[in-house]
Specification:
about 25% helix; alpha+beta
């Protein structure tokens, strides 16, 4: 999901590696337009693998109904937060989910599945 403000070098990169994209506004992401476009393509289920900002935009609009997290046993130790959801505007938060699945994976890794 891109806006017209995206750096053309990023478009070149996406084209080179074969990643599809849709333009969904001039500057601010228009999620309803994005959903309309993918619906017209017959897409009913979407796996969102964005960064913290785009994930937060979908979460604020209650468009995420399931979360899958893989937790590794490494510790970075820095002071900056690492999160899959992040927004300066937290008026729509917190959001709560219920545990759907928990699995211990190889190499001391944990899979956590949550559902709305």
């Amino acid at each position: 999901i891109l806006t017209k403000q995206v750096d053309r070098r990023f478009i070149t990169y996406l084209n080179r590696i074969g990643v599809s994209y849709l333009f969904c506004s001039e500057d601010d992401l228009d999620i309803p337009l994005f959903l309309e476009k993918i619906s017209q393509l017959g897409i009913e289920t979407l796996m969102l693998c964005g960064g913290a900002n785009i994930n937060a935009e979908f979460m604020k609009k209650d468009l995420i109904d399931e979360i899958s997290l893989v937790v590794a046993s490494g510790v970075q130790g820095g002071r900056n937060e690492i999160t899959f959801i992040g927004s300066d505007d937290v008026r729509e938060f917190p959001k709560y989910f219920k545990i759907k699945d928990v699995q211990v994976l190889a190499d001391d890794t944990l899979y956590l599945g949550y559902i709305k």
